[in-house]
Amino acid sequence: MTNTPKSTQEKILAGLAGQQNAGKSTTFNMLTGANQHIANYPGVTVDKKSGSYTYQGSKVEVVDLPGTYSLTSFSLEERVTRDFLITEKPDVIINVVDASSLKRSLYFTFQVLEMGFPVVVALNMMDVAERNGVEIDVARLQHRLGIDVIPTVGRKGKGKNELREAILAVTRRKEGKVLHIAYEELESAIQGLEDQFRQTKLADIYPARWLAVKLVEGDSEAERIVALELGLTAGELETARKIKQSFEESHYMTVADYIMGCRDRLASSIIASCVNETRQGKANISEAIDAVVLNRFAAPIFLVATVFVIYQLSIVKGYDLTQYWWPFLAKFRAIVASILPGAGMLEDPYIRSMALWMVDSANALLNYIPIFLILFALIAILEDSGYMARIAFILDKLFHAFGLHGQSTLPYILGGVFAGGCAVPGVMSTKGIPDERSRMATILTVPYMNCLAKIPFYTLLVNVFFAPYKSWVMLFLSTITIFVALLVAKLLTVTVLKTKETAPFVMELPNYHPPTFFGVGQRAVERTWQYIKKVGTIVVAVSVCVFTLLQFPGMSDERRTFFQEEMNKALGQFQEKIKESSYVSRFKDDAALVELVSLYNDFKTAKLNTKGAEANEELDTRYKKANPELFVFLKPEQDKDADTVSKALRGLASTQKTLRRQIKEEQIGTSVLGMVGRSLEPVTRWAGFDWKINVAILSSFAARESSVATIGVLYQQGADENKSLEERMGAETNDSGFTPLHALAVMVFFALYPPCLATTIMIKVQTGSYKWMVFSILFPTALGFITASGIYSGGKAMNLSGIQMMGVFYLFVVALTVVTGLSKSWGRKIIKSAGLAVAENG
Amino acid sequence: MNSQRKQHRCMLGDIQPGTMAKIRCHHSCGAIRQRLLDLGFVPDSEVNVVRRAPLGDPIQCKIANYNITLRISEASLIEVECE
After folding, report:
1. In Å, how far from its chain's centre is CA A721?
2. pLDDT at A740
3. Stretch A156-168: mean pLDDT, rounded?
4. Cα–Cα distance between A771 and A534 in angstroms, integer?
5. Are B71 and A253 inside 8 Å of each other by CB?
6. pLDDT tens-digit profile of A784-809?
7. For chain A, what are the domain ranges?
8. CA A487, CA B7: separation in Å to the nearest integer?
9. What CATH number is given to the structural domain containing B14?
10. Which end of chain A, C or N, has fewer beta carbons within 10 A?
11. What is the CATH code of the structural domain delimited by A11-172?
């Protein structure tokens, strides 16, 4: 290589390379500290993390390369790493090596050395190796490799200065004998080819030795490079082909296998001289655990138990915690409300209602933070302990039958496979799946999992229409989505994803080790933070759009005047009623009245949410203290005049509430979204959706939870009697002929509904294409609509009730899933026998 | 070396759990082959089939001191000799 050290204020480019799980990221953090930034490699979705530090007057820029097992051109990560090495020509490669599996790591080290780069080996996780009884003679290893080997413990920052020192030293060193990987019987032929390359212009760009070895090995990328630079008829290509052919004819094995064997023998001899394994240590503990946990009969039990514990701790306990967390969010809303311009009697200032709408949308999502913190922490424990890899091992066959991958498990769990999750971290975590086809199928099916925000909508509909079968319907909803996701995955992999690359399921099962508190905490916070960022940016932005679409163009001036007149009438009545009382002069002014009415409304809401005599008393004292003058009208006690005002106030507040609701409903009905909802009615009638449901569905694209809010506004008759939304919806829909069958169609549509905007953006990031993002919106819409129409129209035609149709649909989907899953081996048999059974019955 | 007579060749995917085997060669090519080599399925190294997954596929193999899991379809591309 022609790397001349740069003058005076040195700038050093260092590439950090190594195998997966060798502790590259911790080493990277150790070297660069907080000074990092993330970008993308050109044209691909692989993260390019780089950072820098200054050491003894030299500025070192470190690029964290993707974790790869070798430097061939088979996988995206390997190609990215190789391209970086060839085009950027870093001054030094820091090769991070897992001390516990040194031999396997050496194959990679050899390949980097062969490319002619100055290399420093960071022998990481020395503590783990020592604990496992692996003794490494570092001095001898250094001698054998001919390069610096620095023992490090990245997690604890051990070996930081030594590593920095070595990085600097290796860029200044001019001589030294680096290990030469000799290929035994092929060596002379390879050297000949290498010398040939040295004569060509290629030698300036590529390491000649590397080209020679790769060409003999039959590496397609190397062949492409040579053909491109020297022409297809280049003598070097011919020479390489001849070497390959004659060797393979005489040795009955491929050159590639032979070269691998040479590297393996060299690695073995290095290991034999430098490593001393005193005892097998931890591996035995792992084996003992696996003997139980992976036992054919016990494995499913452990798996189900794990899932159950996660569900209990995160969803159930986490939900209990939200009760303590919600007051903080409510306080935040109160603060925002107090800053904004005050509420009006009939209509609030635009800025106030919009800001509060934004806060409400965000709060609804932020309310889940305790659940996500627990959920993500538990998942991090599963990953770090090594059990997650076992789950992939146990479930791979099942997933594989549907075109997915054992490693689809993690995205599915994050996405909410058991009643609650979030597709955003779910889609993000597909990064680790090596099989491109399965990865795409996973990305496109994770959104079918039950995201936490769908639950309130389900709960609402279930309580109204399926109250007697509550738990059955919830079970139906949480399992049907899994079956549908599997079916969709299968459908996609045999159609649109057919041409995508696949990769085998070959995965390491790491030894079990106890997760560190820091590692788990960091991951849990990081993933929760992604979620908060989503809420803070996309959801809030989209909620503004939805708000606007629900507001404009708004109702006509005529109607506005009409409502204003109604309000004036009520105000007149109020004044009439309190005419005799001594407080009459107090409320001459409208502003004072508005204040009183909103105080009354707040007090009443607070009362509704307070249970128990003690708490009620406490509430009274609090309000009394905050509003010493007005409190008497809320609770007049002995004051007769105040009592008159209080009674009049009750009437006024009730009228105001009704009018405000009517205004809102009219506003939504005449808004853009309302008109779209209405115009879709002729089509959505097949699925039984009326315009109100359409509006709820449209508005939920921003974030699912807004659908419940929208429905709340739309179904408001009887709200004055303090009926719950469930009761109101029940009463009103009964009149309009909305049956449980309608509700079933809506729920199924909602289950298959396209991902929320935040998820679709994550899909764009992970697939790297807008095409797939659009697909992820259109396909579920079509699927959901067709399914919902089938349920509604089919149920109606067969005269089935909601719950009956649910059973029929469920059986159909489960049967389809089973047949699809077994299709390869038993598919035909089952269809045949099912056909026979039907024939017999018929 | 054990005597040739006691050994017979078969595919890694066919051997029973609990058996030791020695890798002879790969019948796969391209990315699959490379990945297997990277993870230590190198000719002449010893491999122990530890167990099958509860559903029968994939299998768990032990090479040196670490465990690798792979599907039977891939394991059936690795020729081994077993005793």
Report:
1. 42
2. 86
3. 89
4. 22
5. no
6. 999 999 999 999 999 888 889 999 99
7. 11-172, 184-277, 557-657
8. 45
9. 2.30.30.90
10. C
11. 3.40.50.300
Q: What is the distance between the alpha carbons of residues A265 and A263, in angstroms, rounded to a whole number?
A: 5
Decide if A280 and B56 are in contact by the 8 Å CB cutoff.
no
Q: Kindly list the residues from chain A whose CB atom is less than 8 angstroms away from the CB atom of residue B17.
A: none
Lowest mean pLDDT among A131-135, A545-549, B74-78: A131-135
Chain B interface includes A775 (CB < 8 A)? no
> Cβ of A689 under 8 Å from any chain B Cβ?
no
HSE-up of residue A40 (Cα within 13 Å, Cβ side): 8
> Which residue from A280, A297, A505 is facing B70, i.e. has the nearest CB?
A505
Give bridge partners of residue A509 from the DSSP assignment.
B67
- State the residue range of the domain holding B25: 4-82
Q: Which of A100, A107, A393 is closest, CB to CB, to B38?
A: A107
**pLDDT tier at A827 (50, 70, 90 boundaries)?**
very low
A511 touches chain B (CB under 8 A): yes
CB atoms B69 and A509 under 8 Å: yes
Our count of domains for chain B comes to 1
DSSP conformational letter for A629: T
pLDDT over 70 percentage in chain A: 89
**Residue A828 pLDDT level (bands cut at 50, 70, 90):** very low
> For residues A429 and A819, which has the higher predicted lDDT (pLDDT)?
A819
B70 and A400 in contact by Cβ < 8 A? no
The CATH number corresponding to A184-277 among 1.10.3720.10, 1.10.287.1770, 2.60.200.30, 2.60.40.1120 equals: 1.10.287.1770
Name the minimum distance, in Å, from the CA of A254 to any CA of chain B.
10
Cβ-nearest to A506 among B26, B36, B65: B36
Q: Poorest-confidence range of A34-48, A500-514, A584-598, B39-53? A: A34-48
Beta-carbon contacts of residue A48 (< 8 Å; ≥ 6 apart): A38, A39, A40, A41, A63, A64
| Chain B residues in contact with A300 (beta carbon < 8 A) | 54
Are A393 and B69 an interchain contact pair (Cβ–Cβ within 8 Å)? yes
Inter-axis angle of helices A706-714 and A350-366, to 10 degrees? 130
Would you state the pLDDT for residue A148? 92
Cβ–Cβ of A396/B58 closer than 8 Å? yes
Q: How far is CA B28 from CA A433, A498, A547, A605, B47, in A?
A: 21, 21, 58, 70, 18
Q: Do A397 and B25 touch (CB under 8 A)?
A: no
User: Taking CB atoms and an 8 Å limit, are B69 and A400 in contact across chains?
Assistant: no
Q: Where are the alpha helices (DSSP H) in A147-234?
A: 160-172, 187-198, 202-205, 208-217, 220-230
Residue of B34, B67, B73 with shortest CB distance to A74: B34
- The fraction of chain A above a pLDDT of 90, given in percent, is 17
Assigned token pair, A773: 């993002």
At A607-654, the pLDDT tens digits run: 777 778 888 888 888 888 887 777 878 777 777 777 878 888 888 888
> What's the pTM?
0.77
A504 closest CB neighbour out of B25, B37, B70: B70
Tell me the CA end-to-end span of chain A in Å, nearest whole number: 80
Contact B68 A507 (CB under 8 A): yes
